[in-house]
Write a structure and sequence with these properties.
The chain has about 120 residues and is of the alpha+beta class. The chain contains two helices and six strands.
């Protein structure tokens, strides 16, 4: 302890990780409640900004298909789940809870390709 302050180490929030997040309060069609999110921002941003860029994850079977949603691999989460590519948010790391799982590079690239298509950028 230096200067009367306790030093705490920030936990690492990693790109491609799925974490619990408290998304309330919300407005309109934003995903609400405590739910998993997929972190898509780079690790240095996550560590230095105390925030992350994340996509909401749902276990409710969507009525839409890729590129609006991406089905996660079976058994990655306790229930069948989909990444809602249209539900992107910047979140304070204080909103994040425990680590759940992570996706691989190929899955991440497919999700980001879907996001790019939604933004009008074809890969």
């Amino acid at each position: 302890m230096a200067g009367g302050r306790i030093r705490t180490l920030a936990r690492r929030i990693l790109k491609k990780g799925i974490y619990w997040a408290k998304l309330d309060p919300t407005i309109g069609t934003e995903q609400a409640g405590t739910r998993p999110v997929l972190v898509i921002s780079i690790n240095s941003f996550n560590q230095n900004s105390n925030s992350v860029i994340a996509l909401a994850v749902t276990s409710k079977k969507p009525k839409v298909q890729y590129p609006l949603v991406y089905e996660l691999p079976e058994n990655l989460l306790p229930k069948p789940s989909w990444v809602k590519i249209t539900q992107i948010r910047t979140l304070s790391t204080q909103r994040l809870g425990g680590f759940i799982a992570s996706i691989n590079d190929q899955q991440f690239e497919q999700i980001m390709s879907g996001f790019n298509r939604l933004c009008g950028y074809q890969t």
